[in-house]
Amino acid sequence: MGGDASAVRLSFARVQEAARVIDPVFQQSPQYVCEPLGEALGVSLTLKVETLNPVRCFKGRGAAYCVSMLPEDGPLVCASAGNFGQAMAYACRSRGRALVVYAGTSANPLKVERMRAMGAEVRLAGTDFDDAKMAARRFAKEAGLRFVEDGLETATAEGAGTIGLELSGQRLDAVLIPLGNGALLAGVALALRTLAPGVKIVAIQAAGAPAMTESLRTGKLVSHREMKTIADGIGVRIPIPEALADLEGLVDDTLLVKERSIITAMLMIHRHAGLVVEPSAAVGVAALLENPNMFSGRRVGTILCGGNLTPEQIREWLL
Fold it and tell me: Counting CB atoms within 10 angstroms of each CB, which of 64, 144, 161, 244 has the fewest?
């Protein structure tokens, strides 16, 4: 992947700027030591709760910053498994701007419904996120519209980096960060490397969608023809090369977690913290379940990055 692209593409100064630009409704989210959950896992566990906002996920930060930086000269196009599309719909609606979102036919119906409710035109194309992204890119090119790609746009990572600003004063030994297309991980890691350089940065991904992790571990782009995970928010088959390069020098370790651990983690978060989170948000806790000796007795933080579940998913996984 080559080169210290994190120094080239991403800017800590822009993370600080994002904190001044992003709608306050997405910032200063709750962060606290959850004693019951930490005791069950054998750690001191700080939860960063990114579900208590209008789009129920962290993506509002990056989308708000990204849209604020784009010239206001026409509709925007993006692709999403659901959360980024909601965040873009919210940001575009607040600026009176049209948005077309492409999603796979397997996308979470609740997320699709919310994107439409916030004014986006949603088109279903292909079976998963990566298929939808290819269709969105083709449409934008043919229509002459601006395609906004989560993870490729530096502002999506820099906006997410404001989470790192808020976490930096927590005196943590390690932070377990969900890894999807890399925007959350890159932004938060950049902020923590700058403000709390002693914190260990651990990327967590579902074993059923390991392309980003395998790429980081091997130092070359690894893609897959299919993926199999309930963690749709971090399900990526084809990594973005620039997003991989952004992570160089920022990540200390990577862990893959099993599906059954993700479900158990969701249930534990619900029982011990009273929170409803989607599978992508539970992978940090799943990593603690699978690797107890690695973190035993340590001060650990994790980001609960989203909470968009359908009623059917709540019944299946939490009740």
Answer: 144
Instruction: Collapse the DSSP code of 29 into the 3-class scheme (helix H, G, I; strand E, B; otherwise coil) and give the result.
Output: coil
Q: For residues 301 and 249, give the distance between their C-alpha atoms in angstroms, rounded to a whole number.
A: 20
Are the beta carbons of 158 and 194 closer than 8 angstroms?
A: no
Roughly what angle, to the nearest 10 degrees, separates helices 259-273 and 283-290? Answer: 110
Contact 192, 166 (CB under 8 A): no
State the amino acid at position 260 in one-letter form.
R
* Cα distances (Å, whole numbers) of residue 35 to 38, 47, 228, 293, 299: 5, 10, 33, 19, 11
How confident is the prediction along the chain (319 residues), in pLDDT tens digits per residue? 444 444 479 999 999 999 999 999 999 999 999 999 999 999 999 999 999 999 999 999 999 999 999 988 889 999 998 999 999 999 999 999 999 999 999 999 999 999 999 999 999 999 988 999 999 999 999 999 999 999 999 999 999 999 999 999 999 999 999 999 999 999 999 999 999 999 999 999 999 999 999 999 999 999 999 999 999 999 999 999 999 999 999 999 999 999 999 999 999 999 999 999 999 999 999 999 999 999 999 999 999 999 999 999 999 999 8
Q: Residue 146: phi, psi to the nearest 5?
A: -80, 120
Distance CA 277, CA 300 (A): 18
**How is 73-109 classified by DSSP, letter by letter?**
SS-EEEE-SSHHHHHHHHHHHHTT--EEEEE-TTS-H
Question: How many other β-carbons are positioned within 10 Å of the β-carbon of residue 99?
Answer: 23
Whole-structure pTM value: 0.93
In three-state form (DSSP H/G/I as H, E/B as E, the rest C), the secondary structure along 216-278 is HHHCCCCCCCCCCCCCHHHCCCCCCHHHHHHCCCCCCEEEEECHHHHHHHHHHHHHHHCCCCC
Which amino acid is residue 62, in one-letter code? Answer: G
Which amino acid is located at 147 in the chain? F
